[in-house]
Amino acid sequence: MSRLRQSGPVILFLVTVLLSYSGPAEGGQTTKRFPSTQNNTGSEWQTLEEFGEGSNEEMRMVGSDVAQRNQYPYMVSPKDPKNMIVLFGVHELSGKRNDAQLSRNVVKIKIHEKYNPKHWFNDIAVLTLDNPVKFTKTISPVCLPPQGSTDSYEGRLVFAKGWGRTKEGGKGSDVLRHISKRILNQSKCRQIYNYRPYPSHMMCAYEPGKGTCQGDSGGPLVVKSTGPKCKYEQVGIVSWGKGCARRGYPGVFMRVTSFLPWIKMNT
């Protein structure tokens, strides 16, 4: 959720094309092997032969910790994808029971005009809510990068969170979980995913044994803000990847700075 207005139609900024979309966040891809190397964050990259392509070791979101309740007040969760209802101020999701403080109906979905479901190009949408959202200590927006920003965030520590599967092929989490990763440079991302197109509006992040999974698609990737008004700044959107936290394969995100003009135009 980003910069929700308190008057007039409220805009909800999420990343997935539909709230019911559950893949392919770091899942379901075949890939080519690439040579072992050392990235600039100090994390070792291994070939599939070294680690084992089918291994689920270190896949425990995967390798994550439980977030504190309302630690991320900008998180929004779908309650009823069919009827497009979203929840605010929620930490625990247990079937029909949850601890949400507020719910809103989605009345409009604006999908990016150049969205390509085959390659997940431009995997972003803007959702409009039926009523404004009043901000509190436990419900508040995340900041966007400044208009015109060209920051690549390379090497920066980033945080992803969600209620997705806690291991590849596993079940979703009942509570909000989070992980930390580091942003890789684009040449490394393209080297790893050299079997498919990788445009500049994508970015990737990696940490061994940690990753988003099915059910985390559309979630925010944030950095700690250096500005006085914002605690977190959203720099990415969970989109796709190879498996869930597989060794040597980073998660791929939509790069928010690439979409700032489009977001402004549609909000």
From TrEMBL:
The Peptidase S1 domain, residue ranges: 25-267
Gene3D superfamilies linked: Trypsin-like serine proteases (2.40.10.10)
One record GO biological process: proteolysis
Designated name of the protein: Peptidase S1 domain-containing protein
Signal peptide: 1-27
CDD domains the UniProt entry points to: Tryp_SPc (cd00190)
Molecular-function annotations in GO: serine-type endopeptidase activity
Family the entry assigns: Belongs to the peptidase S1 family. CLIP subfamily.
UniProtKB keywords: Disulfide bond, Signal
PROSITE patterns reported in the protein's UniProt record: TRYPSIN_DOM, TRYPSIN_SER
Keyword Signal: yes
Keyword field contains Signal: yes
